[in-house]
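User: Need the bound-state model for nicotinamide-adenine-dinucleotide:
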Amino acid sequence: MRIGVAGVGRIGTMHATNLAALAQVDEVLLFDPVSGRAAQASAGLPGTTAIDDFDDLLKSSDGVLLATPTNTHPALLREAVAAGVPTLCEKPIASDLAEMTKLVEEVEASGVEVLVGFQRRFDPAVFELHRRIRAGEVGDIYLVRAIGHDANPPDFGYLPASGGIFRDLFIHDLDAVPWLVGEPVVEVYASGSVLVHQAFADADDVDNAVVLLKFAGGAHATLSGGRHDPLGYDHRIEVLGSKDSLTAGLDARTPLTSLEPGGHVAGPDAYPGFPERFHRAYMNEMSVFVDVVAGKVANPSPARESLISLQLAEACEASRRSGAPVRLDTKVASK
Ligand SMILES: NC(=O)c1ccc[n+]([C@@H]2O[C@H](COP(=O)([O-])OP(=O)(O)OC[C@H]3O[C@@H](n4cnc5c(N)ncnc54)[C@H](O)[C@@H]3O)[C@@H](O)[C@H]2O)c1
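Assistant: Bound-state model below.
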């Protein structure tokens, strides 16, 4: 099987490396419009070949992965599905809800499989949490807590185009938490502050925030997120139900120090960033992608479901600015 990767920047290079390591993949084709970038990436990566043109990439690939800047996703995704090539598109597939809704309709009309790169859905522990919830092992869900804190802020030049903390950082848990609970969110409340650096205020953004989600059945979720954690990158999801209480992301590398006797002490091996924390998820994401391309498994992260996280991120931003809860249209992802 040949898989094409469009965009060999930060995340595209990582995906290409993981794809090249899979036994099912014979060759990974790399395309990037920046002259020499694909050739340079290919030179350091056995099993890959640079290609000069996106159309040629589509013609030569059984499946294609889009790891390009977000504003290029709608046009490239339209080209890929028009060519009938199953695609994994990095999140988000579009940056506003109206455009994304139109794109989802087009994707579904094409009948071509499109996966969205929400890596938590592919993380073995988060996936197991999802399986146990669906199997009834957690019972009725009372509460979900999601924690997502970067170790260090991004380059400040990135902030004005990032879409703000909810579209950029919280979007992953705004996808994962409703996916785990399996019910529509009916109300959102969000609050944020600038505590880390003035650059966030200058970009009309915040660097620490909390979100409260209320689900149709009455369960709540609290999400916290921020741009600085002195001990490392911290991502956990905890679910408390009527039968069990489970967590994903609490392990020997969690950047957290317990004050209990014999408790965990954060050390130099704490996760420095999301690539390390989600390494197994990214590996598994590529493996599932090629299995979807081969028609062996169902798509676990379809385009339509990504409407939910964007709707919630937009509602969080509105709530944070108004200071009031926002009621939601629960039919946003319905056909
Ligand atoms: N799922 C995750 O964990 C995760 C993490 C980081 C980034 N992302 C997403 O991945 C995407 C890329 O982010 P990044 O940080 O790797 O960006 P980046 O800027 O490091 O890389 C983007 C690459 O795409 C290339 N490019 C630009 N236009 C192109 C086009 N028309 N065709 C092909 N290549 C093109 C650029 O030259 C660059 O090499 C973004 O949508 C981002 O939201 C997802």
